[in-house]
Amino acid sequence: HTDQRQCFITSHSAVVVSAAAEAQLWFLSPTGEIGALHKEKVKRLQERVPETFLARTAVIAEGKTELGFLKSLLEEAFGRDPLDYGVRVCYGEGNDATLQLLEALRDAGLIFAGLADNEGRNLGRWAELKEALGDRLFQWPNSCTEGEVLSLIDEDDLAHLFQYPDGSWNGERARTVADRLGSQAIDYDSLKEAAKANGISLKDASIAAATGDTNGAPEDNRKTWKSHERRWFKSEDGGSELYSLAKRVGVWATLAPNFLPLV
Predict the structure, then answer these.
(1) In angstroms, rounded to a whole number, what is the distance separating the alpha carbons of residues 201 and 258?
(2) Which of 6, 39, 137, 188 would suit a FRET pair with 123, their CA atoms being 20 to 30 Å apart?
(3) pTM
(4) Helix 64-78 to helix 236-248 angle, to the nearest 10 degrees?
């Protein structure tokens, strides 16, 4: 009964926070300081996920992939839903929006964490955030979650990329790579042969498809190549699948030392 009442109170508080679009949100920091959050920088999150401002700790995941990946990681780390401990994982709506939001939360002196891609932009601002947040901010060193994880997969394990979690063949995903390699066939052996004939590795071709890379695309095919990422991990479920894949093929052992400080 107490838990239900608490949920009722929290949900109604969230409605109030979301509806207060013209109001100024104020905070009480862990060190006892009182101040106002930057209105424009938090506006989108206030509208979409107002519960963020009622959580013990907010974790901002840059994209949908990062959202699913981090949720799965934290659920395993906690052994239950992170929300049971007041930890809310939120979607940051892209690299630039996430940077702006993290800066606003940092300036407010709030306790929070973040996971972001490295798109090679705003390096100075990201460095300042990292200095302020320490291990509570993890930014990939070179690229995005998909690229970093897939680059670690052994060539002998690449077939796992084209399988659904139940082990069946993912023809749509295989087709994105086949199209880039000029192959009509989408079975695994044909993809390997096509990659070899194109002078690239199947891993690199798969990473390009998973990230929607348009380098080398015919001009009239650039939008199609960009859309390939939708067949891979560009969703919350996709991020969760990517985390499971990393565990299944042994990549997590390499990634864990990077993530454990954040956890």
Answers:
(1) 26
(2) 39
(3) 0.86
(4) 50
